[in-house]
Write a structure and sequence with these properties.
Blueprint: H1 40-52, H2 54-62, E1 67-69, E2 73-78, E3 81-86, E4 89-90, H3 92-105, E5 109-118, E6 124-130, H4 131-147, E7 156-159, H5 164-176, E8 180-182, H6 189-199, E9 203-207, E10 210-212, E11 215-217, H7 219-232, E12 239-243, E13 257-259, H8 260-266, E14 276-277, E15 281-287, E16 295-300, H9 302-316, E17 326-328, H10 335-343, E18 352-355, H11 366-374, E19 378-381, H12 383-392, H13 395-398, E20 407-411, H14 417-427, E21 434-437, E22 471-474, E23 487-491, E24 501-502, H15 506-514, E25 528-536, E26 542-547, E27 551-554, E28 557-560, H16 561-569, E29 574-584, E30 588-597, H17 606-623, E31 632-635, H18 649-656, H19 672-682
Parallel strand pairs: 5-18, 7-8, 7-9, 8-15, 9-12, 12-13, 17-18, 17-19, 19-20, 20-21, 30-31
Antiparallel strand pairs: 1-4, 2-3, 4-14, 5-6, 10-11, 15-16, 16-24, 22-23, 23-25, 25-26, 27-28, 29-30
The structure holds adenosine-5'-monophosphate-propyl ester (PRX).
Length: about 675
Amino acid sequence: MSESVDPSSKSIESGLQESRLFEPASASSLGMDHWHISSIEQYRELHERSIQDPAGFWGEVASNMHWFEPWTSVLEWTPPDARWFVGGKTNVCDNCVDRQVRDGHGDRVALIWEAEPVDKAGNVEIRKLTYLQLQEQTARFASVLRSLGVTRGDVVTIYMGMVPELAIAMLACARIGAPHSIIFGGFSSQAITDRVQDAKSKVIVTCDGAWRRGKIVPLKDNVDAACEKLATAGDAVEHVVVFKRCENDISWNQSIDRDWATLMAEASDDCPCEAMDSEDMLFLLYTSGSTGKPKGIVHTTGGYMVYTAYTSGLSFNLISDSDQVFWCTADIGWITGHSYIIYGILPLRVPTLMYEGAPNFPEADRFWDIVQRHRVTQFYTAPTAIRAFMKWGSEHPEKHDLSSLKVLGTVGEPINPEAWMWYHRVIGKERCPIVDTWWQTETGGHMITPLPGATPTTPGSCALPMIGIDAAVLDENGNELGANQGGLLAIRKPWPAMLRGIHGDRERFIDTYWSAFGAEDSSVSPFYLAGDSARRDDNGYFWIMGRIDDVINVSGHRLGTMEVESALVSHQAVVEAAVVGMPHEIKGTGIAAFVTLAPASTPSDPSALEELKVSLSSHVANEIGAIAKPDQIRFTDALPKTRSGKIMRRLLRAIASGEGQSNQDTTTLEDFSVLAKLQDDSE
Ligand code: PRX
């Protein structure tokens, strides 16, 4: 349960009140030809149609894409299994790249890349790839993968920095029907090991290093450590392809390491796109859940392709072959990067910008420098970044010409109205609509969001369901709740980009998203349960209140509290650990860890305890990645538990957020002295 949820009440309390309403600007006032959806009435009409006749509606949308063979039916739905564009044959890389070249757009810029390093004269490296160049590179790398024995259905693991070669590698996988599993470059070698093992991947594509805030992240070293562990476990990796980006020292294992540049120079650029079945897997993407083990979310070909392109166009008002430049600041290692840097954007022929590094390198104005340099028109970022910009000061954006901006977006966590207003005033100059897009790794694309030319916006609300999405707030019996009652956020109809499963774990898939309302009933529910709580206001606008499972959103990135707990208890000094979220000024939610030490490992002097905290923090970073480092570690003799032995996280959350125990129900608490001790320590 997250902070905003009170499990003892029938419906979930929701305190946020915000009534400011911002009407959409006219397209012409933003120098735009038109809005794809230009009024709330038009939105409502289209939404209604899409819900009443999903097959007719999505069939029409899908016919904008290129299919080698048409589908025989738009949707087959046997909850929880959806099959979209059944029997259709297509290829996502073809739609992103080859088709654009075939249609005469080979010379248009597909991807703009800006490197992180800045030289003494202030110059930065920029690469622009046209569709033709992207096609040539992608075909070549597809040939490379084939030469390494990769065939349709083989999962290729990609662990790279934000370089164009990452886009090339993923598109090359799509080209030959090899699903990719991209691991965010901030994850540790243990995270690579777990994911490679789960996906049974035999090929890893990586970089020697990645630039981050002027330093080199040693990606290849992390892969080496993972390969060693995998070999010992009998799951040896066969090939590691290394793109040399930073020229940092790396060790080279002749038997498995392969040099990207050498392979590319030898490879043929004649490697046509495979005709994939609409329901063939396009990629696996691991995300955190409420157990210690991340789950591999399965996305397939046709539905994901259609939905990401459609929602990209609508949410950001992307207009093909115009002067637009779209920039999503996410890392491709997250779903946001998959859907809204690559797959949704490339088919629309709006250049997609990829930036390699940190937002504050070399200075805190780097993002605004980039917006100005490339005349960015649509800018998509996370609330945590906006809060950091606020903290760094408005003078940084104010130094730059941001007049090219037309639409602003946010994603990843609820945006606090203060940050929304800052974004609106300082970045959008009160001209640009803000789209607060609610969605998830599992949903593949935007689910609830304003449409920039149609939906009046209110700071903090993600507004209304996307066209084609039937979203609702339900009580624990599956009944729809009335206005302003908090409950479970659910989607009542299938949509094209929905996840098709959790890799290798059917039971977890059903339990997590489709378990029927009420514990005794084991039948599969026809509703997708998002794991978030929400309410709708009097206007039907959605307000996301937070997670209702043991998942926390740290800087907009999902982490399972159990993952962090497992990492902590794998340290030799730790006996038990409980991790909860706590309010954090920049991250939104920070990580608080309550840790019980083995008596023999409990240092008596305070400085040794502080050292132990540091060592526990870096242990977590080694096990998972730096994003999982606790913001606060508290040592305790024991954890507060119910009589049945469940850790009382609610109490820990109250303590971590400084609320104390006063309004918490403690009747099931096993040992009151434990709580008293924890509170003493927190004062
Ligand atoms: O809790 C919601 C939050 O992020 C979760 C999904 O995380 P992930 O799968 O990592 O995907 C993040 C990028 C799509 C959701 O369950 N979330 C995402 N967007 C929003 C949000 N919470 C509130 N408002 C949003 N706009």
